[in-house]
Amino acid sequence: MTFVEGSQVKGDNRMLKWRSIFGPWFLSKPSWSETKRAQYDQGVLREEGATLVEMALCSSVLLSMVFGIIGLSMAFYAYDFVSNAAREGARWAIVRGSQSCSNTPNLTNCNATAAQIQSYIQGLGYPGITSANVNVTTTWFTASAAPPTTWSTCTSGTCNIPGNGVQVKVTYAVPLGVPFVNVTTMTLGSTSFMVISQ
Q1: Are residues 112 and 183 in the same domain?
Q2: What is the mean pLDDT of each run of 10 residues along the chain (198 residues)?
């Protein structure tokens, strides 16, 4: 106890020495801790709302990424549909050429037209795909007589005879819901070409 009192007296003597050197300025200036305490009492240094602001900023970035990934995943799914639908349409068309009615009497939609090919593709019934947004363009091609084989667009006569080619192009408008992106739809397309067999 004596040591504490002695050190306290020694400290008080030092304080008096500083006060004698600096005078009233030393007495009137608040200490650093007193200044911070006063600011805290006035609400300047309080942090009650900081967590809420940080959470709002982080959540907006995180949720934008999550919804963006979901939107792009739906776009990849739609592209898978488009590419598969083009192949399915071309396969369906190559067995329904001009001679398919006589070669396969029980075949439905033999000697298929472009409108029938489009109806077939739109009726594939993929979940999550809006059939009204599916557009199908069918083009028939004629093979060259001499090798190497080149293909030219068939413009006259019977175009869907065996040995000719059929090209099915499928496009689909995908609605996008990616946050902070102004694009509302993205058009995906795929083309398939096959040779008519009957």
Answers
A1: yes
A2: 48 58 54 62 64 89 88 91 96 95 89 95 92 95 90 92 96 82 85 96
